[in-house]
From TrEMBL:
GO terms for molecular function: 4 iron, 4 sulfur cluster binding; metal ion binding; quinolinate synthetase A activity. [4Fe-4S] cluster binds at residues 129, 256, 346. Its EC number is 2.5.1.72. Iminosuccinate binds at residues 65, 82, 161-163, 182, 282-284, 299. It is found in: Cytoplasm. This is Quinolinate synthase. Catalyzes the condensation of iminoaspartate with dihydroxyacetone phosphate to form quinolinate.
Amino acid sequence: MTTTEPLDVQPTALALLLLGREADPRSERGVECPGDLPAPSDPDLVARARAAKARLGDRVFVLGHHYQRDEVIEFADVTGDSFKLARDAAARPQAEFIVFCGVHFMAESADILTSDDQRVILPDLAAGCSMADMATAEQVAECWDVLAEAGVADVTVPVAYMNSSADIKAFTGRHGGTICTSSNARRALEWAFGQRPAGGGKVLFLPDQHLGRNTAVREMGYSLEDCVVYNPHKPNGGLSAGQLRAAKMILWRGHCSVHGRFSLESVEDVRARIPGVNVLVHPECRNEVVAAADLVGSTEYIIKALDAAPAGSSWAIGTELNLVRRLAKAHPDKQIVFLDKTVCFCSTMNRIDLPHLVWTLESLADGKVVNRITVDPETERFARRALEQMLALP
Ligand code: SF4
């Protein structure tokens, strides 16, 4: 369970923070795509962010997730995916404030991995993740009961994607499972299957069905029939005891609202438009998209693949648009396009903007700790156990 400190918000000169004072776990559902990023940053805000950051000096460490806006990335001390950023924060014990420009579950992970003296701040409390919200602690506990009823709980190992709440990570730690990222999902699954009698083990994969399915089927030779989808909104997950017993992979019915929108048609369309294009997608995409792509990999993999690509090559990238645009700018010698014309930014990531960052930095510099994210000690203990298991993966 996560708590936030009571807010002590004073109006700033520009009344910067109109939104995001309260946590709103449902906020990211059904959001509309703005179609494009807002206008470039107000130069006054840039100057104010610089001044506040300079006032804080080494006391603050700003983390910028790859999917953040350019105006925010400009102030990041380090960029990366969620796990790399949490580890970077833990490696900076002298930083009193970790300002996490990302989404809620990432700030929770940073709080779990950093020392008790470090305070993790999320500039907008409404920056959640729709995928993480698709698995609540109550739903997952109920699922485990269903598995127990079917007689399969003791041969099942939970594997939770990094993109999950601290509660789900703690559930995973309590039940002897591991966390995984999109880079090490295969190793996590191999480890999990190895924990139970040969051939008899199962994995409950949370909360992203696509990463679980793509890893098992594309990388490990399981069939689509080895996978079942547990729907938390149906009685018994919509599955019979026989289906649960026969399955190898029990996939939670969750998905990323950004990567889940890429379609087979978008792959076919880009191949028709750009002859010889390399299609490179994230494993959170649907199975048919991944099957039709040339390359599949995590955000870090995508960045490295484009770094290594020869000049003159063409690429269609299936991941978040802020990152794709930044990569296209960084590689003017290559043609880099977004895989789908209709997919928008991660709207919750985009809630962190320069006004919220300025408000956060100025508040901290003035001695007011705002939007702190804390994970309670019991949840932290078990979530850390699951994270440590990931670090110990062979
Ligand atoms: S890109 Fe997808 S998984 Fe990542 S924060 Fe946004 S909704 Fe969540």
